[in-house]
Design brief:
Elements (H helix, E strand, L loop, with lengths): L9 E3 L2 E6 L2 E6 L17 H12 L3 H4 L2 H7 L2 H28 L6 H9 L1 H32 L10 H21 L1 H31 L19 H13 L15 H30 L2 H6 L3 H9 L6 H30 L9 E3 L6 H5 L1 H9 L4 H29 L12 H20 L1 H12 L1 H10 L5 H18 L1 E3 L7
Antiparallel strand pairs: 1-2, 2-3, 4-5
Helix pairs in contact: 1-8, 1-10, 1-13, 3-4, 3-9, 4-9, 4-10, 4-17, 5-6, 5-16, 6-7, 6-13, 6-15, 6-16, 6-19, 7-13, 7-15, 8-10, 8-13, 9-17, 16-17, 16-18, 17-18
Length: about 500
């Protein structure tokens, strides 16, 4: 297993890490003996929870390429219908996660719920794929969008050099990870500010669009359902694109242990966020069609920029900045949340023990945050990031569907489990079926890329037996692992979390 059994005593400045019952504990010097326990603090309030969800859902997609849904639906009316239905389905999924988050009060999101319902193997496969491919690739993609749009006002007359985009992107990724390593409070405060910027950006589009409607600019809504009929392959792909645009409603469940009053704040934050995002997305698309024809929208590389150039004149220069801030918020929220999945998986013995340790003063899961940095940098300077996302995007919905199916299973397996928030059974049944149906259709619509993604996911099975089940590893290997762990503890000033009760 990854978790070591013996560790030498190490010292570091004002701290002495001693072995106690096979675990390291932190003992401060005489000036700090009475200090707080080294644990993750409950600093996520209702407002911060809303900012995590909204700030992670709203990325670059709504501003850049809503044309994916229009391409696959064939008409304005069907595209708006898909946006609405995807919002409702996402709300159903969010409600299921609200029940899971209030009944299983552990951080980790998908990983924790799959572990509770189906055991360690599928949970390990989930975190394995997330750590190695999905999260570094997803962070790289949204970060590249940040780099491109933050530089756009400086390169109005020429193409932005790829190297410049990647360099500013690397700086942004590093900044986000430093921020999340230094302070939970500051990363949450900045997330609130960035969420406010996202909502302002959406209002910059919605308000002129409403004014256009008042003026009678409704020509693109006449015969709204007339156009190219959606194909058998196209409509599922449209829903797939729509569900991807709404993905992010599950991130608050990654930090459950840090949420104040989770029984109240998790359901309330999830429902509030999903209503705001769904209304905002639908009205934003309505606003686009008040000014842009379906043909204009399909030809545009960045729909929000094209829209603002036609209606807002010189003020349109602000739109790329708001898009960049939106991307930065998604980066910050994603890293903040997903690092907790790695932290919990390490605590369960499914990842190296160093990832379950906390900084002695900052009270942040420093190793779980920075482990993503080298992997993300590799992805950033790899030319085929988008293909990697295509290979593995199906895995997200496979495991989300599995987690929600696990909620149904737990209703029967553990009927006496406290459930402060409980949804009607048809909601998880419908949502899990939708997720698994999308996965099956992706195999039909794009068998090559989806098949490759499925094969990559399956590599987690032999990895589980090699790293977790096989406990007769060579003695030299265990010694090297112990030495690396102890050295990193000294360098990073981290220790295991002190024991706390998780209800």
């Amino acid at each position: 297993m990854f978790r070591k059994t013996t560790v030498p005593t190490v010292s570091n400045g004002n701290y002495l890490e001693e072995q106690s019952n096979g675990r390291l504990v932190s003992v401060r010097n005489t000036k700090a003996v009475q200090a707080d326990k080294v644990v993750l603090k409950k600093k996520v309030t209702f407002l911060r929870g809303v900012s995590i969800i909204i700030g992670t859902i709203i990325g670059a997609g709504i501003f850049i390429s809503p044309k994916g849904i229009l391409e696959n639906t064939g008409s304005v009316g069907m595209s708006l219908t898909v946006w609405t239905v995807c919002g409702i389905l996402s709300l159903f999924g969010a409600l299921c996660y609200a029940e899971l988050g209030t009944s299983i009060k552990k951080s980790g999101g998908h990983y924790t719920y799959i572990l509770e319902a189906f055991g360690p193997l599928p949970a390990f496969v989930r975190v394995w794929v997330e750590l190695l491919i999905i999260r570094p690739a997803a962070t790289s993609v949204i970060s590249l969008a940040f780099g491109r749009y933050i530089l756009e006002p400086l390169f109005m007359q020429c193409e932005i050099p790829d190297l410049a985009v990647k360099l500013i992107t690397a700086v942004a990724i590093t900044l986000v990870m430093v921020l999340n390593s230094m302070s939970v409070s500051w990363s949450a405060r900045i997330q609130i500010f960035l969420t406010f910027c996202k909502l302002v950006a959406i209002l910059i589009i919605i308000v002129p669009g409403v004014m256009q409607l008042i003026k009678g600019e409704t020509q693109h809504f006449k015969d709204a359902f007339v156009g190219n009929a959606a194909s058998v392959k196209g409509l599922p792909l449209a829903f797939y694109s729509g569900m991807y645009a709404y993905s992010g409603w599950f991130y608050l469940n990654f930090v459950t242990e840090e949420v104040e009053n989770p029984e109240r704040n998790i359901p309330l934050a999830i429902c509030t966020s999903m209503v705001i995002v769904t209304v905002g997305y639908v009205l934003t698309n309505v606003a686009y069609f008040t000014t842009l024809s379906p043909e204009d929208l399909l030809m545009s590389k960045a729909v929000a920029v094209t829209f603002s150039e036609r209606l807002l004149g010189s003020f349109s220069l602000a739109v790329p900045i708001f898009v960049a801030l939106s991307c930065f918020g998604s980066m910050n929220g994603g890293i903040f949340a997903v690092s907790r999945m790695f932290y919990v998986a390490s605590r369960e013995g499914h990842l190296p023990e160093i990832l379950s340790m906390i900084h002695v003063r900052k009270h942040t899961p420093l190793p779980a945050v920075i482990v993503l940095h080298p992997l993300t940098m590799i992805m950033l300077f790899t030319s085929d990031i988008y293909s990697l996302l295509n290979f593995l995007s199906f895995a997200r919905w496979l495991f989300i569907g599995l987690a929600v199916a696990g909620m149904i299973y737990l209703r029967y397996k553990r009927p006496d489990m406290p459930r402060p928030f409980k949804v009607p059974l048809f909601i998880p049944a419908l949502f899990s079926f939708t997720c698994l149906f999308m996965v099956a259709l992706s195999l039909y619509a794009d068998p090559v890329n989806t098949g490759i993604g499925f094969a990559i996911t399956l590599t987690g099975v032999p990895a589980y037996y090699l790293f977790i089940i096989w406990d007769k590893k060579p003695r030299w290997f265990r010694r090297v692992l112990d030495w690396i762990t102890s050295s990193l503890q000294v360098i990073l000033e981290v220790v295991p979390e002190e024991e706390k009760e998780i209800s």
